[in-house]
Amino acid sequence: MKNKDNTPFSVNRTKMYEIIFESDTPAGKFFDIALFVFIIISVITVLIESVNYYHDNYYRLLRTIEWILTFFFTIEYILRLYCVRKPWKYATSFYGIIDFLAILPSYLAIFIVGGQSLMVIRALRLLRVFRIFKLGSFMVQGNVILQSIRQSRNKIAVFLYFIVIMVTIIGSLMYFLEGDVNEAFDSIPTSIYWAVVTLTTVGYGDITPVTSIGKFMSALVMILGYAVIAVPTGIVSASLINPSRKVNGQACPHCSKEGHDNDASYCKYCGGDL
Length: 274
Known about the structure:
The chain is an all-alpha fold. It has two domains: 8-135, Four Helix Bundle (Hemerythrin (Met), subunit A) (Up-down Bundle), CATH 1.20.120.350; 142-240, Helix Hairpins, CATH 1.10.287. The protein is 66% helix and 0% strand. It is built from ten helices and no strands. It has helices at residues 8-21, 26-49, 52-57, 59-83, 87-91, 94-111, 129-132, 136-178, 188-199, 212-240.
């Protein structure tokens, strides 16, 4: 974030932005690591609190830990809004909404009767760990995977469309073969559900064919199910073979997005200067 004003206020705001939003400085890395630790502690607290024994015997301790973490996340959220150029744009972004939801449940539990049940929303804080992945190789590898998925999205969409057609045909056929003798296949939608479960090799076992031809069809669908895993895996793997460009952890001061090339002067998302 380039500083265009030399006033103390602007300088401090710029330094704060570099610490909070960027990971290519020692202070920025330290902040991200500390944030990661607090997020993990918070999620572990949510998990422990859901166990009746710990909730009944250690409620006060868990509440104290939660409010300490909530206070930290609240200060962090305010500082993020303070140091960006467009606070409202950040607040309505994906990470901005997640940051807000990270602190909202604790305050709702105070003012709303039954708001305690909303505390499970705190588990969404785990999504904030993705922000930490901008550190070093995590960011590089994460961008490679996302780029590969973007490049393969049309092929994957065609494949999924083919799967929808296939399970519809298989489900309709199984309804024709089993419907008269097996009450489990009582409709085409139910038969399609069976086709999806069998094709994905989940196999709940709540619906099973009883006729010989139905069992033979089941075996074919199970074997075909391996292609459901192999085909999209091959599509994405082919894209992963392409070499990736070197990217850094610098966030755009305008749109707060990361993943820019090391020699980039402008944001590849919004065009703003870095």
